[in-house]
Amino acid sequence: MKTQSYLRHAILLTALMLSFNLLGCPGPTVVPAGTPQCGNSIVEGSEQCDGYAVRGFSCLTLGFNNGAIACTASCQLDTSGCTIASPVMNLCGNGLLDAGELCDGANFGDLGCESYNFIGGQLLCSADCKTIERQLCKRPEQTQQQVCGDGIVTGSEVCDGNEHGSVTCGSLGHAGGILTCAADCLNFNESQCTTDVCGDGKKEASELCDGADLGNQSCKSLGFKSGTLSCQNGCKSWDFSNCSNISPATCGNNTVEAGEVCDGTDLQGKSCADFGSPTGTLGCNSACTAYVTSTCVAAATATSVSSIASAGKVTVQDAIYLPGSGDVMITGSSWQNGSQIGPLTLGNEQGFLIRIDPVVRQVVWAKALDYHGVAVSINSWGDVYVSTYSFDGYGAAVLVYDESGTLMEERKFEPLTATSDVRIKAIVPVDDTNFLKAGAIIVGEYLGDVDFDGDERSASGTKHHGFVSRIGFPSSEWFTSVGSAVSAAGFETVTTDQNTIIAGGYYTGQLSGCQSQGGRDLLVARFDKATGAPQVNDCHGGPGDDLVTAIQVHASGLHVAGVNGPGLKIFDDQFSRSTHTKISGTGQFLYRSSLLAGFAYWSSALSGITDKVRLSKSYTSPPSQSSYVCHALGATQMSVKKIGATGTTHHASANGDEISCEALLNTGQGLFAFGNYETWASMGGFSLPSGYSGYEWKIQ
């Protein structure tokens, strides 16, 4: 523990020294020949753009969702043509509740006349979708005891003084504020209810920014090298006037610059080993946009295979690679009393977390868990996060261990009624220089009333709601629920990029920007990492039941994989939904989309049974080396495929009774698969002993 503490302080001190050096000493500047001339269509010197030359910038790369970028006469970027949200998604009259709308046509969300203390009737929506009109709502019969001003709601009154029942500004669709009662007690006064206000210094749903609240964006995060980003144009666009130092990249100068993956001999520390090949010479293509691996020498298809347990019955649920040591963390469950994993003896229906050396297959340390081990992840400090839940709905937990196996933190999540349940399906740590501030992102689903780490949460109706939450120490920071009394949702997997959280799972009915396709449909949802605020829903589906089981942020985009029923439609354009690829059979799918969501580059069916699909986890983020997908082809065969620019190619396969793939790790020591089999398994010429066990397979 002391060594770990010293290491952390050393890393922090080094980071601080580097930050002072960067602030005090500007980097090298590319100085073009001659004097820069604005208007010659060549970006020179301090110019941000020149004519149609905008250096690869677009509305999307600068944080908007749509529109066209331009260049001013003074060679500065002009984002006035960019918009925050798709015009289709925000158009009043489309029947959807978009940002800034209280209603749209007959869509009032969960509101009805009863929400305003009436006894029935019909709400009406104004032409601009900004006002809910209640003249057709029915009032109760007036009684002789009715006295407006006595603070008691009677007869035809909907409120009286400060007595509003359960009605608030929030329940009526506003952002907040103070609800009052009209002088005649027959209507509510919503004049003090608030909506998104530009200028209050708080970035809200319909705003790109507000004052100093830039939503974690900066000149640097939007592609510039330095400067101070500002908000302008009624909180709808960026002010780049103080962003500077846009230097054009020069491919071929053996130095990686903005927009380049590699450049000549500058390979950013990469080698053939990073792409799964032990020997050979890695290169860079002539456009400096991709590595050349054709001169790398591939490893053997399979080098080793072994069972996780030495006795009993165990199943693997997830695994993660520890880059510093080369070890692997594995979590799962025992299904028999006396199951043995290294020195650990387990009971029936007991979870486990083990650290192993995958090369010599030796258990470094092992822990028994109260609940079934479901997902495992690791932060940059080497601390291990494991999520667990009881399959019978009795509760869930998140535990944090240091690299030596000492329990550091534990958080519990428990149902409050007999009909409630909570399931944590995936976890990813949030790195921070302060461990107590870091915490983790957890996703899953819940039903009814649940105690979330000391905070009571309720899912309305009888349907599961999906959730995304950032848990911290000593307390959770935020919680976002997805679903309603009539629309179910749940998340199975999660990942993050610099500023956002991306969760994958399912939904039924309607969500913001998503229409029902007839069954349980695919959902990939983006959330703000700092606040948990929903951003964009990417949804696809068909008449059958579909589910996202794996997502991966890759250098080339977002990989999404899962299982599907017949007739799954993968939309090429999420906003217009005009074209799509239809996957006719029941099985598995994989598609690649833009990281900002909404545009599928390609999609394909993975021939196989309806079983889990897993994408390779990489030890670099985002992974620049090859990506892989593993899935079951049938009850006795499992396949590993390599993901290319337009689809997949066969890489390796294995046979076994009820064989599955639960985790795929692309490590510095090779490609490893972890999963389960029942009575027998054979992988690349290696056979496993009879039994009911998890396996470890080193493929290359």
Give a structural overview:
The protein has 700 residues and is mostly beta strands. It is built from 2 helices and 56 strands. The strands form 18 sheets. Strands 28, 29, 30, 31, 32, 33, 34, 35 and 36 form a 9-stranded antiparallel β-sheet that branches. The longest helix is centred in the first third of the chain and has 23 residues, at 2-24. It is globular. The two termini are 34 Å apart. 39% of the residues are buried. Residues 1-33, 85-90 and 299-303 have low confidence and may be disordered.
Describe the secondary-structure layout.
Blueprint lengths: L1 H23 L41 E2 L2 E2 L5 E2 L3 E2 L36 E2 L2 E2 L6 E2 L3 E2 L37 E2 L2 E2 L6 E2 L3 E2 L31 E2 L2 E3 L4 E3 L3 E2 L34 E2 L2 E2 L6 E2 L3 E2 L6 E4 L6 E8 L6 E7 L4 E3 L2 E3 L3 E8 L4 E8 L2 E7 L5 E6 L6 E6 L5 E9 L5 E9 L5 H4 L1 E13 L2 E5 L5 E7 L6 E5 L6 E8 L3 E8 L13 E8 L5 E7 L6 E8 L2 E8 L3 E4 L8 E4 L3 E7 L6 E7 L6 E3 L1 E2 L8 E8 L2 E7 L4 E9 L3 E8 L2 E8 L3 E3 L2 E3 L4 E6 L2
Parallel strand pairs: 48-52
Antiparallel strand pairs: 1-4, 2-3, 5-8, 6-7, 9-12, 10-11, 13-16, 14-15, 17-20, 18-19, 21-56, 22-23, 23-26, 24-25, 26-27, 28-29, 29-30, 30-31, 31-33, 32-33, 33-34, 33-35, 35-36, 37-38, 38-39, 39-40, 41-42, 42-45, 43-44, 45-46, 47-49, 49-50, 50-51, 51-54, 52-53, 53-56, 54-55
